[in-house]
């Protein structure tokens, strides 16, 4: 499935991009904001990687691993999104 491979590559590249971008930032608030975006990208990577493995192998073991990866990925996405919303509102509040 080319869509899974594309999502895996794009999310991994975004994760690396955000992690490298954190190094160049001085403000702790923007660092945490960028880290929240990196966490979302990592969650998408983990979830799509798990789904891709199940599509490729289609065994019972792959199903358990897929479900574990999808659960971990969704946890990362949800937690990253909550952090993203929180720090975005803090940045907007401080900029006003």
Automatic annotation (TrEMBL):
It holds the Pfam family YtpI. The chain crosses the membrane at residues 6-24, 36-55, 61-84. The keyword Transmembrane applies. InterPro entries: YtpI. Keywords: Membrane, Transmembrane, Transmembrane helix. This is YtpI-like protein. It comes from Allobacillus salarius. The lineage of its organism: Bacteria, Bacillati, Bacillota, Bacilli, Bacillales.
